[in-house]
Amino acid sequence: MSDKEFKFKAQRANVEVKWFEEWTSRYGETLPEPLPPQENWQHPILSDRYAGTMHEDSFATDVSHFPGPIPANAKVGYFHVLEKGKHLSGMAPLYTFLDDQTVVTISFGRDAATLIVIDISSPPPRVIDSVPIPGRGNKMREVAGTKGRIAVFRDTSGGAYSYLDSTGTVYVPGANDAIVRIPIRNRRVVREEMQYLNLGIAVGKGTVVEEILNKKPKDNKLTAIMPAADGRVWFTSKYGVVGVIDTLGERTEDGCPKIYAAAIQLFAVEDKIRQLFSPLPNGSEEFFADVKKAQADQDIDKFPEIRKRFRELFLGKSDFAEQIQNSFSVGPDGVYIVSNIALYKL
Rounded to 5 degrees, what are φ and ψ at 297? Predict the structure, then answer.
């Protein structure tokens, strides 16, 4: 992975502030009282002041207790990515803060993503450093039309749900199922200390239940990572893998933390099926009993047969698949994950 020049153009804009007649007709040109400060739970690994994620913790970029509204016109500085032609201009689905003067963001282009460190001490913003992130790539024919380009940028794999810890290190879920550790010190990327952890095998476990997933295994990409309060790192994939990197437990012979993963479809199987199917298909009760026995006995040899029966009973020819909705949240008492049919606390 080699660095390349990141092309951009700094620009400025004026944001004019005006009073709304609905407000002034009742209160005149007076500002409202500020909201009381929020009593936020402090994540022990993320910053106690700045946003560490896009919107997955109490100090996220869309969680604020600033009083508002802005009492004066604002001067806005921004930059426009110029990766045109075969690279195609990108967008920034994530931004976090190193300090009051430094933003970290990721630009999504057609063939790659780029982590960018930006000086915002004064407008216009200035790019201090950048480094490419491997794994995200689309062929030119995939972005030939408007629909294709929209699909490319709607895909959040490759960095949208990254996080920045309190030490200034960014952890990125790469689209090639590798977590990239990117240390930033003195507002510069420390390239010689960047590390990669391949989760490809663990993410691949997401195809064990839903037969429809076997048709498009490349779509089952790592999408989000988040540290729990105890330091273990959780991750999810597009088609329902939930996993944890056990940083506190036993290590492999190579000194790496062990990784555990399972398909979200396997959690609370009976409860979900009873909720979704009425009446139950013939053979359901026998299936539930066999699942409980196999799980209690940890009889791995029985699992392929159980998966086959699950598909035959409940999926048939349907392309329905339980999917995780992009991101998840952590709190002092656990991890919360939302799918398209259930809310889980792990």
Answer: -85, -10
**Count of CB atoms within 10 A of residue 256's CB?**
11
Cα 328 from Cα 94, distance rounded (Å): 15
Tell me: the pLDDT tens digits for 200-228?
766 655 444 444 444 445 566 778 899 99
Task: Please give the model's pTM, rounded to 2 decimal places.
Answer: 0.77
- pLDDT per residue over 149-203, tens digit each? 666 666 667 778 889 999 999 999 887 778 899 999 999 999 999 988 887 766 6
Chain centroid to Cα 308, Å, comes to 31
Element (H, E) at 60: none
Reported residue count of the chain is 346
Sign of torsion, CA 306 308 309 315? positive
The dihedral formed by the CA atoms of 34, 35, 36 and 39, expressed in degrees to the nearest 10: -140
End-to-end CA separation in angstroms for the chain = 36
Query: Which three-class secondary structure state does DSSP give residue 106?
Result: strand
Give the tokens for residue 84: 């045109």
What token pair was written down for 140? 């030119």
- Of 208, 202, 271, 201, the C-alpha closest to 236 is 202
Using DSSP's 3-state secondary structure scheme, residue 255 falls into coil
Which residues, listed in sequence order, are joined to residue 336 by a DSSP beta bridge?
Answer: 329, 345
Residue 111, Cβ neighbours under 10 Å: how many?
16
184-211 CB burial, b ≥16 within 10 A, e <16: beebebeeeeeeebebeebbbbbbbbbb
Q: Which residues contact 120 (CB under 8 A, 6 or more apart)?
A: 77, 101, 102, 103
Q: What is the full DSSP assignment across 24-48?
A: HHHH-S-PPPPPPPP-----SSB-S
SS3 149: helix
